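User: Could you go from structure to sequence for me? I need the amino acid at each position, not a summary. C-alpha cells:
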C-alpha cells in the first residue's frame, strides 16, 4: 500500500503480535480468503462509478448468519407514510452488511473553521436521531473519521470528487470490526457541507448503496436543493440492520 497506518498498535502484546503477522501477510500475499477490504464509494458529485479495491488474506471468516438486536432508535421507528425503501440498491460485502453493533458510534471531526464544523455537526445530529452517535476528540478512538481533505482522483480519465467514503475491516479481541473514513473536499461550502456529510454518513452507518430518487439523502447525484434524511432513507437503514452479518461477532 505504501502508506503508514494512521491507527496505533494494540495495547495488548498478544494482539500486537497478531496485528504484525497480519501486516506481514498483507505485504506478501494477495491470495485466497478474506481478511481486509478497502472499498471506496463515490460521492454523488462523481461522474463515474468508483471501483472496489479488495486486498485478500488467508483466513477463514464466519458466514454471515446472525443479525444483531436493533438499537432502540430503529426499533421505535415507524414510517406512517408507507414510503417504501431502496434496500435492493444496497450492496452487502463478503462479510455481510456494514452494520454497527456497539453504540454509540464514535465520530471524529477534524478541527477546522467553525462554520465547517457546524455544518458537519448538523448532519451528525440529524443521523443521531436514528442511530446513537458520539463525537470524540481523538481520531484513534473513532469508528468514523470525517476529514476536510481532497479525495484522490479516480476514473478514466481521472476526475475530481467532492467526497469519498471508505472502510476497512480489522480484528479486535477476536471480534471482526470495521471503521470508516470520510473525506470531504474543501471545495464544499455553505449548505453543501451538511448535505455532503449527511449523504456520506448514510454510507458509513450502513447504507452501502444509492437511492434512485432525488428526495432521498442517499440519492446518487448532487442536487441544487439537497434533501434531508427521508423516511425511505430510514426504512432502508432499518432493513439493513435486520440483515445477517459477520461484523461484531467473535471469530473464535
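Assistant: Here is the amino acid at each position, in order:
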Amino acid at each position: 500500500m505504501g502508506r503508514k497506518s494512521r491507527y496505533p498498535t494494540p495495547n495488548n502484546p498478544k494482539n500486537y503480535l497478531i496485528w504484525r503477522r497480519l501486516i506481514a501477510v498483507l505485504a506478501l500475499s494477495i491470495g485466497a480468503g478474506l481478511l481486509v477490504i478497502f472499498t471506496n464509494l463515490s460521492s454523488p458529485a462523481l461522474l463515474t462509478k468508483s471501483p472496489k479495491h479488495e486486498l485478500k488474506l488467508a483466513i477463514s471468516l464466519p458466514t454471515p448468519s446472525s443479525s444483531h438486536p436493533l438499537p432502540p432508535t430503529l426499533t421505535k421507528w415507524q414510517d406512517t407514510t408507507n414510503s417504501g425503501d431502496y434496500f435492493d440498491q444496497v450492496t452487502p460485502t463478503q462479510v455481510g452488511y456494514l452494520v454497527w453493533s456497539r453504540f454509540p458510534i464514535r465520530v471524529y471531526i477534524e478541527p477546522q473553521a467553525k462554520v465547517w464544523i457546524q455544518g458537519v455537526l448538523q448532519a451528525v445530529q440529524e443521523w443521531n436521531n436514528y442511530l446513537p452517535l458520539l463525537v470524540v476528540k481523538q481520531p484513534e478512538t473513532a469508528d468514523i473519521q470525517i476529514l476536510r481533505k481532497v479525495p484522490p482522483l479516480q476514473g478514466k480519465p481521472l476526475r475530481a470528487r467532492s467526497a469519498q467514503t471508505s472502510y476497512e475491516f480489522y480484528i479486535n479481541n477476536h471480534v471482526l470490526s470495521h471503521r470508516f473514513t470520510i473525506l470531504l473536499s474543501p471545495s464544499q461550502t455553505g449548505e453543501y457541507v451538511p448535505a455532503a456529510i449527511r449523504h456520506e454518513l448514510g454510507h458509513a452507518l450502513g447504507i452501502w448503496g444509492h437511492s434512485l430518487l432525488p428526495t432521498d439523502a442517499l440519492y446518487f447525484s448532487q442536487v441544487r436543493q439537497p434533501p434531508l434524511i427521508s423516511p425511505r432513507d430510514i426504512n432502508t437503514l432499518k432493513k439493513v440492520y435486520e440483515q445477517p452479518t459477520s461484523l461484531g461477532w467473535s471469530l473464535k
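One structural detail worth keeping in mind: The longest strand covers residues 163-172.
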